[in-house]
Amino acid sequence: MNNIVRTLRRLGFSTSTYSEVILSIKHGNIVNYAPMGVLLVKDALHLRVYMGSLTYKLIMEGAKDCVLNITSDPILFYNSILDKSRVKTVGSIKVKSPRISGCQGYIECLISDVVKTPRYLRVLLNPIHIDYYKIIPTTYKRASSAIIEALVYYTKLPYLKGSSGDLLSKIKLCVNTVFRSTKNPKYRGLARDILLRAYRITQDLSTR
Ligand SMILES: Cc1cc2nc3c(=O)[nH]c(=O)nc-3n(C[C@H](O)[C@H](O)[C@H](O)COP(=O)(O)O)c2cc1C
Fold first, then answer.
1. Which is deepest, 2, 37, 63, 168, by most CB within 10 Å?
2. What are phi and psi of 21, to 5 degrees?
3. Number of structural domains, the chain?
4. Is residue 185 domain-resident?
């Protein structure tokens, strides 16, 4: 096992369980951010990028590299989808794509292979530089996980129109969890906002 793979494993990347990160990517003058699930495959990292996203478009247009930003902060996950102008970046060491400020680790990657399937791109990443901060352990927060889970269901809404009622119910369960597990007004506000946006999308879909 080489050093990069050993470090990726220590950071939590696995061949069997998805690691959720925020991918930042730059192509030409366009910079974009989006949460993505990543699997370790031998000494590479593997992504599925679904059709319809800006990330998909930038990779199809020839983006060469990206950064996997490691964080468990639900505000960074929320901003990377719904409030992109609030995402702050800093330059990377070996790639053109920037890092997202405030994360606990950064994997700078070259995009080494892209395979187009009918619904998504299978993308292989070659990790070339890793930085991470040693931090003291932090407690598990149900509220953070529930906000990120609500975002997963929210981002599926445009693609799974037939299941929008089911997705909305799941978002409501996540929002209940947030309200039961935190008094933090920022977290409660994000949860409420995701639910309101989800209601709006479901209404739009049903009137089409
Ligand atoms: C935790 C989490 C994981 C996600 N994983 C993926 C993924 O693996 N592939 C994907 O295409 N979209 C994934 N998404 C959805 C995208 O992040 C979402 O569609 C995003 O809005 C795309 O942004 P863009 O259009 O700016 O590229 C995930 C969302 C969340 C919240």
1. 63
2. -130, 175
3. 2
4. yes
Q: What token pair was written down for 127? A: 């990790």
**pLDDT, tens digit, 9 for 90 and up, residues 137-186:** 999 999 999 999 999 999 999 888 788 999 999 999 999 999 999 999 99
Expressed in angstroms and rounded, the spacing between residue 22 Cα and the centre of ligand 1 is: 9
CATH value at residue 125:
2.30.110.10
Pocket test for ligand 1, best of 53, 85, 114, 171 (most atoms within 8 A of CB): 53
Handedness of CA 2, 136, 190, 146 (dihedral sign): positive
| 91 and 46 share one domain | yes
Asked whether residue 208 carries a pLDDT value surpassing 70, the answer given is no
Residue 67 Cα to ligand 1 midpoint, Å, equals 15
Domain range enclosing 125: 3-132
CA of 119 to the centre of ligand 1 (A): 14
**Ligand 1, atom 20, residue with closest C-alpha:** 34
| Last-in-domain residue among 108, 132, 156 | 132
Separation of alpha carbons 49 and 55, rounded Å: 7
Q: Say if residue 68 is in the same domain as residue 95.
A: yes
**Binding pocket residue ranges, ligand 1, CB within 6 Å:** 20, 32, 34-37, 48-50, 53-55, 77, 81, 148, 151-152, 155
